[in-house]
Amino acid sequence: HYHRWQEDVEIIKNLGVDAYRFSFSWTRLFPTDGGAWNEKGFAFYDRLIDALLENKIQPWATMFHWDLPQYLQDKGGWTDRATVDRFVDFSAAVTERIKDRVRYIMLINEPSVVSVHGYANGCHAPGLRDREKWLASTHHLNLGIGRGFRRLKALDPNLTIGSTYTVAPIRAATLDENGMKGRDLIDAAWNRNYFDPLLKGTYPKEFADAMKPYIKQGDMEECHTPIDFVGLQHYAPSYAELAPDDKIIGARNAAAPEHFKQTDIGWMIEPAGFTELLTAFKHTYGDVPLYITENGACFNDGLSDDGKVHDSRRVAFLQDYIQAMMAAK
Length: 329
Prior knowledge:
Structural class: alpha/beta
Order of helices and strands: HEHHEHHEHHEEHHHEEEEEHEH
Distance between the termini: 35 Å
Strand order of the largest sheet: 1-2-3-4-6-11
Shape: globular
Helix content: 40-55%
């Protein structure tokens, strides 16, 4: 994309798409700790934004999409409270430069992925499995969203500012007490640990006491944010079970029932889960403006005999999920 952005913009235009979401690379723009702004890095984004606008494509910018600079990770990453203000300062510097052209801003992409996968189960960078680090990072990501929203609104109150979250309805793998407890723990860890602070100003009861050591006076008021919109990112429901041997969350994801269709990377296909998610969100959190900022599927389609990729499974997937969204609406 860095080298072929012009072709990419042309493809977007030819698709008839009128909005393009992209992410700023913190590591590209501020490659050294305390160092100067990398003008060459930002020149790329200037060219991209201008080309999008010339082609009547609305730019939607994400400030943080997982690429934390190594110099901040060496100090603890999101477990270090100082990272909150570093993120806010970074976002403000970028916004000052783009606010004359970019009106839609998303703060942190999928904080649950950053925290749960980065610090609880270790399958994403920085690859750690530590309950205290997971709890601290969760709170600091929430604080970054609340504090970042207020800082950017102060720069320009007419900006439309939100944040994006990956959300799944969580279901019990077994219909007994253990299954229900596992479901509630995973739902709290993956969904409610982020939406409850943002939209209610509290942590869910499953982790409220555990969060107390990381909360300072005024934090929850900052986390509780009158956000302009929530970006929902959804692929499939998840199943959960209690895991007494797991000393971090106390529950884990379980296999989905075999009767569900799957994508080619094993993700469950269930459009009805999308309707369930959207209606449950409305019931729980009220009239929050929503955008669907991610959805899709992996299908390893190839060329047919006529030399074309017909991609029929993806077409069907998108049609079904759009219909599920409209059913919720």
